[in-house]
Design brief:
Dna Ligase, domain 1, 12 strands, 3 domains, D-amino Acid Aminotransferase, Chain A, domain 1, alpha+beta, about 290 residues, 8 helices
């Protein structure tokens, strides 16, 4: 039974990405029980039975407000999917280091407390590559993400900031990035995302494109291991929804790029059941 009152946290009115098609999916699946609330203005949850941040796009741009909201949800014992503890843990990509320590291979990453040319040169030596990708540990939609060659200057917008430094893996363009979608712990569908020509970002706003695929066995195994390790690290149960992003490196090893447990695009148009399992998992939690 769908709760009568569901709040989906959504972007501010001036957010630049188009999310209307996703809103339409959720409205179709959840009906009149769902309300869409600007996440920056959400402060009274007494009218709702369930709150989910599924569309809280833009939260990395105001981290104090975001973490304050999570604190409030926790303090008020609001029913949230996914759980607040998972949302907090998944907000900072430092979680990749925890998963790596648990034996989950991820894209090699250096967390630099202060991005400058010295940090980039040290990373090139460590990774033995010329081309690097830098991104903020708290980010979404490729915000603040750059591919840098040896002669490129450190972008002003991220210079001196805490950043992740990774080797650029050419297979992102040659094969693409796999996304596997799990609802209540069960695989729903998989897609392959590829960047536009001469780009490295797979997001739609940068010209990325996607198609439905059957995920390779190695990607399936890694996704399941990553979710199991997440449950062990965070002491949580099965999550209502999860997206696992995976890339195969030049040696054929599948590596975790990201776990999307907060506000992932779920690409429900590729789901065989058009999202019915997602809706059931969101409502029931299992």
């Amino acid at each position: 039974m769908i709760p009568l009152r569901i709040a989906i946290l959504c972007p501010t009115p001036d957010y630049e990405e188009d999310w209307s098609h996703i809103r339409a999916d959720y409205a179709r699946l959840l009906g009149d029980s769902v309300s869409f609330i600007d996440w920056t203005k959400a402060n009274d949850f007494s009218a709702f039975d369930l709150v989910t941040p599924l569309l809280a796009w833009g939260y990395p741009r105001d981290c104090p407000r975001w973490f304050g909201l999570l604190d409030q949800l926790e303090a008020e014992n609001v029913q949230v999917r996914n759980p607040v503890s998972i949302l907090r843990w998944n907000s900072d990509k430092a979680y990749l280091a925890e998963l790596d320590a648990a034996g989950i291979p991820s894209v090699p990453t250096i967390f630099s407390p202060l991005l400058d040319r010295v940090a980039l040169e040290n990373a090139r030596k460590t990774f033995n590559v010329e081309s690097l990708v830098v991104k903020p540990p708290i980010s979404g939609g490729a915000d603040g993400t750059f591919r840098l060659e040896r002669d490129d200057a450190v972008p002003d917008s991220v210079a001196g900031q805490r950043m992740m430094i990774q080797p650029y893996l050419p297979n992102i363009a040659e094969e693409g990035e796999y996304s596997l979608f799990y609802f209540a712990g069960v695989l729903s569908h998989s897609i392959l995302k590829r960047p536009a020509k001469c780009d490295f970002r797979v997001q739609e706003q940068y010209g990325g494109r996607e198609e439905a695929v059957t995920a390779p066995q190695g990607a399936l195994m890694l996704a399941q291991r990553a979710l199991a390790a997440t449950a062990e690290i965070t002491k949580t149960g099965t999550l209502a929804y999860a997206r696992v992003d995976i890339l195969r490196d030049g040696d054929g090893i599948f590596r975790l790029m990201e776990l999307e447990l907060i506000e992932p695009s779920l690409f429900l148009r590729f789901a065989p059941d058009a999202g019915a399992a997602f809706a059931q998992a969101l409502v029931t939690g299992v």
